[in-house]
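Case study.
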Amino acid sequence: MKNGLKNKIYPLIFFAVVLGMWEIISAAGIFAAYILPSPIAILVSLFTDFKNMGGHILITLYETFAGFFIAVFLSVIIALIMDSAITVKKTLYPVLIISQTIPIIVLAPLFIIWFGYGYIPKIIIVILICFFPVTVSFLQGLSTADRELVDLMRSMGAGRYSVYRFVKIPSAMPAFFSGLKIAATYSIMGATIGEWVGGKSGLGVYMIRAKHSFATDKVFAAILVITVLSIIFLKIIELAEKKYMPWLRIAGDVYIEEKQEI
Amino acid sequence: MTVKDNILIEVKNIKKSFTNLHTIEDISLVLEKNQFVSILGPSGCGKSTLFDVIAGLEKPDRGFVFIDGRQFNGRTGRVSYMHQKDLLFPWATILNNVCIPLILKGYRRKDAAVKAMEHFPAFGLEGFEKSYPCQLSGGMRQRAALLRTYLFADDIMLLDEPFGSLDAITRKKMQMWLLKIWEQINASILFITHDIEEAIFLSDKIYVLSERPAIVKKTFKIDIKRPRDGKIFTSAEFNKIKKQIFELLY
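After joint prediction, the assembly is written out as follows.
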């Protein structure tokens, strides 16, 4: 606990110094408020306009979670299929990689043309962003499961299902959670990009409107909200990780001495 | 009971080679009921390959494995097999680890736990049911692995250098413990080791293997009477056999 606080104190100080300098520069009036609003002005506009923003936040969160959970569901199934059938893996893996080289930002307008201005194109963008890291890391985790543990299961007569249940899936969990953390960090951004390109509501739309009326403080307030939400999402995943993988937390923590009298 | 009924495992003229490695030339051996039989040989002579063949994980190029008089070439799931590494699942508690063979056999989780718990005191694991493998010492992890092995098949157990990774003192303790527990459980054990003393102390019979490609160099019957204890390590009988095996190996 002591160490955790010590590690956090340096970035906190750095952050405070940067914010302080920003506030001073803004107060000195070097830049106009619509170019660089002060941190305090941003906070004020966040609170005064929160009523208006709240609805947009809920829409963005809805798109994010829908996309995230659909992506995780698809990732798990496709990674399991790819791991158990080598031909499928060989066929799909290059497709996966190539799909990642296409910038999402150029796909977003296409989805608007195809699916309109509703939630669907945003959810698809979130799925596209989350699918890759989760699938690739889960697949990696599955394929690097300890060969000897798999052999041990086989020597006990375990079938394919049991090998996955007892060895492959548990040993892929750390990698799976790494993928989830990457996906969680980018998912809200993904939904916002979708809204930015075209939509009726959501934080992306809110930012576009604020930008058009030169309310730069509101743009910054929206950025702040996106950052905080992304971090909260990431922390939730980390909590789940700790809960479902207690052995990683315990490792090297306590060591029970050999009981000699047996 | 005839002699034939007493034979649990019979390995006949096994030969096994991998692409560039001729590991086993010709090995035959017999494990009888309630016997403790050791396979002693230099490191890398194909002892573990022999166990893979008996356990059915590898198919022999030639020869047969008979278990209970039936051919078992390339069939897994009859004998339990324990490796030098404990191979406990780091993500499961000790109780869940040892329950896995029972669950594979179709036990419900609850029944498996009840059955497994009965053996925790004898295996020196009482009170550590909810611990994770990383919290246990090397000796305890090996005992947990042995309990899992025992719960899979309690009549025939293949133990591949189970104490190979332990320090000398823990190792001696584990040998005495294994002997004590073996006298209680009525299992027949096939045991791989490269430790001559360990082999003599534990076994009824020792097969000494040659360097790769392995053949059986000689078979020793150990008639030191049971129950045995630490004193026999220094007895004349023990040292006589030790000398013979030593001369054969070096």
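Observations recorded in class. The interface with chain A takes residues 55-57, 76-77, 80-81, 83, 85, 87, 89-92, 100-101, 104, 123-124, 128, 131-137, 139-140, 152, 170, 173, 177 of chain B (CB under 8 Å). The domain at 3-79+155-249 of chain B is CATH 3.40.50.300 (Rossmann fold). We will return to this complex in the next lecture.
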